[in-house]
């Protein structure tokens, strides 16, 4: 069970206001950390926009020939063709980065499934480094909370930024998006960690002629769903970063010729777990940040009806929600139980094909020219074993979806920003 997310007393406080409003927080370990880091932290905030812009500029245009680049760097290459089953099989994990036994157990269980299913690509849906995100681009936590647990899962991992990766003064606040640049920088030297920029897309080619079979659009949801108000103008909800990201996502989805389109974003659009859905996260319905109202707008105005799937974490649960008219036929899946587990119960009632609020687990997405299937696995941590709990299958893009209970040169146009 996990109930460790710090929730502010009011919407859209600055972190300083939150600390003043919650003396117990300031007197405890969080306050100790704040006092220890306060001076360097101020410099980090002031440098955020410049650092972010520089990183994005340097990375612009990277990855035009990803297979060649991977060969030069020793990185695990993106798959260039469907596997022996005629499909791309992709491991889905979220909220993994604790470095604790549960993360190791889920990864160990996933290794067995990945071997059997011919998995050649993985996804990390954010909160990659608990609790505060990395302190630098070569923080040892990249080793203890990512590389070591995932040993043997030797494939590229499409990583997205979560609120813990963008912590400011308070763990998980999302109040310092510039911290995410450390994860972009780390990707340059990692064989697994694929994050050519803070948001990016990766398209995997079909076996024959024609456009890509499946395309992933990794987005940064943090500036519009942080627990606190953004202080850096670059990352404000209506600032240049979010305007540019929205324009990029809109254009990329419009331009995509992929049969299957999958959006990867840490914070969910719809969610039956305790954090709730975009626009009313954690019970907040006012303001520009804590409620996620502007992420709701982004999902509804740009993603719904265009992407087949939204894959998210943040809630430490496993949910396969049903596509509806509200979502324009897009299916929301929550897969955030690779390191922590939920509180055991549903908090909301969005239509679901299957959902689990108590177990650790992961999922496997399989995309072929005939169908896209997502298999959900729960993991028994003590024995490090996985159990196939449910499958959903979509046979036509944004079309009718069937749900069944279970028995017992790739083109990565990354670095557009
Ligand atoms: Fe999160």
Description:
By secondary structure, this protein is α/β, with parallel strands linked by helices. The chain has one domain: Metallo-dependent phosphatases (Purple Acid Phosphatase, chain A, domain 2), CATH 3.60.21.10. It has helices at 15-21, 23-27, 29-59, 66-73, 101-117, 141-147, 181-187, 240-255, 293-303; strands at 88-93, 119-124, 157-159, 193-194, 200-205, 212-218, 260-264, 309-312, 318-321, 331-335, 352-356, 360-367, 372-380, 385-394, 401-405. The chain has an 8-stranded mixed sheet with strand order 4-3-2-1-12-13-14-15. Helix 7 links the parallel strand 3 (157-159) and strand 4 (193-194). It is globular. It starts with 14 loop residues before the first helix and ends in a 12-residue tail after the last strand.
What attributes characterize this protein structure?
disordered C terminus, seven-stranded mixed sheet, eight-stranded mixed sheet, binds fe (ii) ion, Purple Acid Phosphatase, chain A, domain 2, 15 strands, 417 residues, alpha/beta
> What compounds are bound to the protein?
fe (ii) ion
Q: What is the correct CATH architecture?
A: 4-Layer Sandwich
Number of E-type strands:
15
Supply the helix-strand structural class. Answer: alpha/beta
Q: Based on Cα principal axes, name the global outline.
A: globular
The first-to-last residue Cα distance is 38 Å
The major beta sheet can be summarized as: 8 strands, mixed
**Poorly predicted runs:** 43-64, 399-403, 407-417
Which strand-content bin applies to the residues?
A: 15-25%
Element order: H for helix, E for strand: HHHHEHEHEHEEEHEHEEEEEEEE
What strand line-up does the widest sheet have?
A: 4-3-2-1-12-13-14-15
The radius of gyration computed from the alpha-carbon positions, rounded to a whole number of angstroms, is: 20 Å
């Amino acid at each position: 069970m996990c109930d460790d997310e710090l929730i502010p007393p009011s919407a859209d406080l600055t972190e300083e206001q939150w600390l003043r409003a919650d003396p117990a927080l300031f007197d405890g370990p969080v306050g100790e950390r704040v006092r220890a880091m306060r001076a360097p932290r101020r410099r980090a905030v002031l440098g955020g926009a410049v650092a972010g812009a520089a990183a994005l500029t340097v990375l612009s245009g990277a990855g035009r020939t990803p297979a060649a680049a991977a060969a030069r760097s020793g990185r695990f290459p993106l798959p260039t063709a469907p596997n022996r089953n005629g499909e791309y099989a992709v491991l889905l994990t979220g909220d993994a980065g604790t470095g604790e036994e549960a993360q190791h157990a889920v990864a160990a269980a996933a290794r067995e499934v990945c071997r059997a299913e011919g998995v050649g690509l993985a996804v990390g849906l954010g909160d990659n480094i608990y609790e505060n995100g990395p302190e630098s681009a070569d923080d040892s936590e990249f080793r203890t909370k990512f590389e070591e647990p995932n040993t043997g899962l030797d494939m590229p991992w499409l990583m997205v930024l979560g609120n813990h990766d963008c912590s400011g003064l308070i763990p998980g606040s999302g109040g310092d998006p510039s911290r995410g640049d450390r994860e972009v920088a780390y990707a340059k030297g990692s064989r697994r960690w694929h994050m050519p920029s803070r948001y990016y897309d990766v398209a995997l080619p079909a076996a024959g002629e024609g456009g890509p079979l499946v395309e992933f659009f990794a987005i940064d949801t943090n500036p519009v769903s942080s627990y606190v108000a953004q202080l850096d103008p670059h990352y404000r909800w209506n600032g240049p970063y979010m305007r540019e990201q929205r324009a990029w996502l809109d254009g990329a989805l419009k331009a995509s010729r992929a049969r299957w389109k999958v959006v990867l974003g840490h914070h969910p659009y719809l969610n039956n777990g305790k954090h709730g859905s975009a626009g009313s996260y954690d019970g907040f319905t006012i303001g520009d940040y804590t409620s996620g109202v502007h992420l709701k707008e982004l999902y509804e105005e740009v993603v719904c009806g265009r992407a087949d799937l939204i894959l998210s974490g943040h809630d430490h649960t496993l949910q396969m929600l049903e596509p509806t008219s509200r979502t324009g036929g897009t299916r929301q899946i929550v897969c955030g139980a690779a390191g922590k587990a939920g509180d055991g119960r549903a908090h909301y009632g969005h239509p679901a094909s299957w959902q689990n609020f108590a177990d650790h687990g992961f999922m496997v997405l399989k995309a072929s020219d005939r169908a896209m299937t997502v298999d959900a696995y729960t993991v028994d941590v003590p024995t490090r074993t996985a159990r196939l709990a449910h499958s959903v299958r979509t046979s036509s893009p944004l079309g009718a979806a069937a749900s069944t209970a279970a028995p017992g040169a790739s083109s990565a146009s990354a670095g557009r920003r």
